[in-house]
Specification:
Blueprint (H helix, E strand, L loop, with lengths): L96 E2 L2 E2 L26 E3 L1 H10 L4 E6 L4 H14 L2 E3 L16 E5 L7 H4 L9 E6 L5 H13 L4 E5 L8 H7 L2 H4 L2 E4 L2 H10 L3 E5 L6 E2 L8 E6 L8 H5 L3 E4 L11 H15 L5
Parallel strand pairs: 4-5, 7-8, 7-12, 8-9, 10-12, 10-13, 11-13
Antiparallel strand pairs: 1-2, 3-6, 4-6
Helix pairs in contact: 1-2, 4-5, 4-9
Length: 369
């Protein structure tokens, strides 16, 4: 048995047994934290550096390949994103080339934010001005006492002649300049507007007297219709189908504003609009005076809107698109009808549904004379 010290240096084994296929992991060289440069680095002082050559925009080199593929020393100085010159004085960028055509940019700088006109500086139309040809004409015909002034700057000679005649009959002064807020109006004023007093709601006692309703009476009751555009569209359809009156509640409902009157196209001036405090109590009053109250709903309805037999005097109740008519208003309805639709579109917009329902009612009962 030989001693370990007697073996050659190559045959000696370490204390830890290693595999012959395993190699030791080399350690990275330890560098000391110092500010000294690498021995092979040559530092230049600022005064020894060559001056930077400025290339004029017209004399810059143009190549077919993008600047990103060029060597670093061949890139033109003006194409750098951090150029010292203002953005408006820089030449168009030719770094990206598509179909051998450069993508050019504008030489003019974007306007500063403080130079742009603010939206708050624009003058909004006054709240007591109604615009639109049909709405103005209906106000001059049916409610001339509300009209204080007529603004007529339309270019159509026939429109000016017709409205001037109506204004002369109603004894309304005519202005040839547009009102404040309509100088740059891009809507649909048609060069016609009137200044009016606040809308006057009708009285329920005058619309529905105690003597009883006449044949062909149709009253549209709106519950929780808060969109003024829907209210204006319903009033326009109500004027077309000669509805007796439209009833709206004071709370949780859109009011008749100049916007509603413009969308109604004269319907708010020809159809009485009644505003009540309690819609459910008003429905009970209509029932006591011989009017059949029919509500519309998506669930729990007992009749089909297409085959329903309408009474000679009907009050149609329409609710909001999402929630429908409220539970207390629903209890005061004699019948509930629905219009079944496909699964992908189970309901309609309330103004479109109101127009369809008015047409079905007038198809079964004639309008009053």
């Amino acid at each position: 048995m030989s001693n370990r010290d007697d073996l050659p240096p190559d045959d000696r084994q370490p204390q830890e047994v290693r595999s012959r296929f395993e190699r030791p992991t080399p350690r990275p060289p330890q560098r000391t934290a110092t500010n000294q440069a690498h021995p092979g680095t040559v530092r230049r002082r600022p005064e020894d550096r060559p001056p930077r050559q400025e290339v004029a925009p017209a004399e810059r080199p143009r190549e077919d390949r993008p600047s990103g593929d060029r060597p670093r020393g061949e890139r033109p100085q003006g194409d750098r994103p951090y150029d010292d010159r203002p953005r408006g004085d820089r030449p168009p960028s030719r770094d990206r080339v598509r179909n051998d055509r450069p993508i050019l940019t504008s030489h003019h700088p974007a306007p500063r934010r403080e130079d742009r006109p603010r939206r708050d500086d624009r003058q909004a139309p006054p709240p007591d001005v109604v615009s639109g040809l049909h709405a103005v004409e209906a106000l001059l015909r049916w409610q001339p006492k509300r009209v204080q002034a007529l603004y007529l700057w339309a270019s159509d000679a026939r429109v000016r002649a017709r409205l001037q005649e109506l204004a002369q009959t109603a004894k309304v002064r005519v202005e040839t300049e547009p009102p404040r807020g309509f100088e740059h109006e891009s809507g649909n004023p048609q060069g016609v507007a009137v200044r009016v007093t606040p809308f006057e709601y009708a009285d329920l006692e005058r619309v529905m007297p105690l003597a009883g309703p006449a044949d062909g009476t149709l009253i549209v009751c709106l519950d929780s219709i808060t969109d003024p555009r829907n209210l204006g569209a319903i009033l326009r359809s109500a004027a077309f189908f000669r509805v007796t009156a439209v009833i709206i509640p004071q709370d949780r409902s859109a009011e008749v504003t100049p916007l509603v009157e413009r969308i109604a196209e004269g319907g708010a001036a020809s159809v009485p609009v009644v505003q009540v405090v309690n819609l459910a109590r008003t429905l009970g009053t209509l029932r006591d005076r011989g009017v059949e109250v029919v509500g519309t709903a998506l669930d729990g309805a007992t009749g089909d809107l297409r085959t329903y037999k309408w009474a000679r005097a009907t009050a149609l109740v329409l609710g909001a698109e999402g929630s429908g008519i409220r539970p207390l208003v629903r209890k005061n309805c004699d019948q509930l009808v629905t219009l079944p639709g496909p699964e992908q579109m189970p309901s309609l917009n309330v103004s479109a549904f109101a127009t369809l329902t008015m047409a079905l009612v007038r198809a079964s009962q004639p309008a009053p004379a």
